[in-house]
């Protein structure tokens, strides 16, 4: 296989672009970008590569290589980003964040309101943000409303409605927070002037607002209008109080993004700050799980691009602690060494380190709690060793058809999904759960013996005395019986059965040990059912497609991977099937459900 792939690599261009690796099921497992496709992809297959086991595992799964050429390395980054978002390959880092950021929006309407929202709909109005928290956003909105008389009602203030005097002023008018545009007490021109000033605050241009109020105060004082001068003085004090909360460095530092990273062997911690006039107007710190021991500069380049896209940042300067190699045109990356920019960088790194410390404490606490649960389970089951590795088996069949089985593996109380296994029943005919259990337990531990692998500390069987006895027979044939604790857990009363003991053990329903065993048993059942459904679906599709000329196994697998079930294939429009397998095959496939071709 490697020889065939190396031949493919030799034919790759030296151009920048995106490469894609597919496994033997034609599933996309990794997307990468490159300045030179040929050099980058060939590095995976050279003798000097394979420095870590994760990359070796990736390479061992590659069955097919595809690529797309781009004009530049930055275009390749955009393309890579799209592929990752659409396909979520298992070996690519993926920034998951279910939270949507809050925004402030000046609505497109007569006498515009300023509202806060989490939906970004550009046609609705002019958006400002995003804000790192609702509290930060509300502070800005509160400042805007203290400084300017912006209406908060949702009345439709059209010229006709105002002229016909359809509305009356509300309490906000009497409190001095609104000047009453609903009754034409304020004209549209003066209202829009206030909106324009408020826009500067929302943009973070506080110095423009500060200079405006200072000028108005001095003019009023010069004209002996002391009450008016005091009015503007109060607004200046409000502005200064707000500014003092978020001022970090000098006001000359504006329109800057700061991105820093610190990492461990398995995780990276990235902090992102958006700076406007010396104030932090947005901050986000996130954890990134490494998939292939990616270097810090690669993670930071990808993360910085993603965060700038999320926040709609147009800033042309990015400060960072490691070089960001892929940037848009006219965007500069600087690693500051001294001065206020260095202070900003230090603040960002401090935030990243704080998240790292917090997550490590959390993981240690979680590990300690899981160990406590395992100790309770050890005591409940009265076994000699702590059950750090638990394997659980389950069978699945429907009226005797397509019998399959599954095994799930839990390590330190957590699901180890890489250790999960599916089994097709090979030696048993018909719905015989006991014989099936004996077969899969025997196959599992015979293989571990042959490969000198690590045996579990506890074996669980989903079922009662019958399934447990069958599993024990398999262990006896392998000379493992008595070396590994084995139990059966019956669903109805959650009874625990031991080998050669006619009476079950009843553990307290509130015991964390029993709850863990229930979780493991339910996961084994879910895993078996899922595999069984997939198997049935494949058999059904194969049966329906038998005799159709031009439809082979690869086409069948591709259809199932895309549509997930036979029902969805039948319901799919012709165009969608055609796009996946071509017009000719689509016409043949649609012939299953309708005799005439569209």
UniProtKB/TrEMBL annotation:
Cellular component, GO, one term: excinuclease repair complex
Domain of life: Bacteria
Any Pfam family: GIY-YIG
Biological function: The UvrABC repair system catalyzes the recognition and processing of DNA lesions. UvrC both incises the 5' and 3' sides of the lesion. The N-terminal half is responsible for the 3' incision and the C-terminal half is responsible for the 5' incision.
Gene source species: Chryseolinea serpens
InterPro entries assigned: GIY-YIG_endonuc, GIY-YIG_endonuc_sf, GIY-YIG_UvrC_Cho, RuvA_2-like, UVR_dom_sf, UvrABC_protein_C, UvrC, UvrC_RNase_H_dom
Gene giving rise to this polypeptide: uvrC
Protein name: UvrABC system protein C
Keyword flag Transcription: no
